[in-house]
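Pasting two entries for a bug report.
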Amino acid sequence: MPEGAVVFAAPEPNSGPLRELSDCMYNMSEARSPDWGQMRDRVGDRLSDEARTVLAAAEQAVDFGAFFKGFARAGGPGGVS
């Protein structure tokens, strides 16, 4: 059996692909758009590899554009216009 200390580390709270995307969008303020086609390249470089992988899979969902429009909170009531 190996000798030495064993370390268990919990994942960072509130971290994950959607949190990354949310933080990225929030930090873009008025530059964000509800149109995923316009935002894909803008946010892609700012996200981790894991987040980009999850988003690539999510894009295949039938209603991803509608989801993103609401998620972006841009261009309408309660969002940035």
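Entry 2 (this is the one that rendered wrong in the viewer):
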Amino acid sequence: MADACAWPPVNALVEWPDTDEDVVRLLAAEWGEAAGHTEPLSRLDLGPIGAAWADPPGQAFHGRMTALGTAAGEVGTRMRALQTLAAAFATDVTSAKQTIVDVINANIPLYAKAAQLDPAVAASTQDRFVTEIAAWLNAYLASLAGHGPLPPPFVPPEGPAEEEENWGKTIGDAAGVVSAVAGTGSDAAPYLRFATDQFTGNATNAGTAAKFVQGGASMFAQTPEFYGAASTAS
């Protein structure tokens, strides 16, 4: 049976990021705090030490302190870099989760509408939506991980806005024809597959599918009453 909730089937194909972005932001802040403790060491003025302690031990101490200050500056710089990376990662995780939510939610109305189609095609139509959504989300998540380019913005499949009511009725009528043809025997399968492929948010294609199946039905000696189901799609 077709379902009106798109979340479970999409979640089954898309791995939800399990990283806690709040913890990562805290880590970024702590890297920044640590850098703040080391960076001042690189700015110490050690000149007076060298001037006041001019013998060999004093100069050796001055040299070691200078090297320590330089190292502290390098460590601070690296900590700042880690802070930046952690903050960016937290932002990516937040964006990934929000994008998953937004894309799925944008498709729920159409997904729910597909559940109202004839049982012969409702499930397969919803499967196509789920596959399309999941494929885009997986490509998006892969791009965030550096495995491929960022995909173009996702465009939810939808019927013509000005014919929304007719779209639903047309597809429903066409689905009735397909269902009837499906009962004629295995030879009707190509017509069923063709029509089902047209039921993804396009009123014109749905009407074409109905006409195609109606014409094919004559090959299987259907009665005139059979054609009534497709009359509104003609």
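Dev reply: Rendering is fixed now. As a check, the viewer should reflect this: The helical segments are 7-11, 21-38, 47-52, 56-114, 119-144, 164-182, 189-197, 203-217.
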